[in-house]
Amino acid sequence: MAASQQSAFSGVLSFEVDGGRDTAWAFINAVRLMSLTANLGDVKTTVCHPASTTHGRLTDVQKQQGNITEGLIRIAVGLEDLEDLKRDCERGFAAISA
Predict the structure, then answer these.
(1) Domain at 11-97: CATH architecture
(2) Does the global pTM surpass 0.70?
């Protein structure tokens, strides 16, 4: 639908890191370009930890049923330069692989 309505658009990327909540937050705390928020619609790239933000009120069973793990990170890609976003993700991954 987006392709039929827009000439350019972005996406949402979710991935899971080993180590659960502590590791996910280490990644999130290390990035500098992305803003920490649960908002998906912005021109700026955002990053969040769904288990403690958007899905924080769900029970553990509900989170498990929805595959919302403690290691899950969600990035809603904005309009920044791709190379800048790659460097920011590399900063986050470096923080959790140390």
Answers:
(1) Alpha-Beta Complex (3.90)
(2) yes
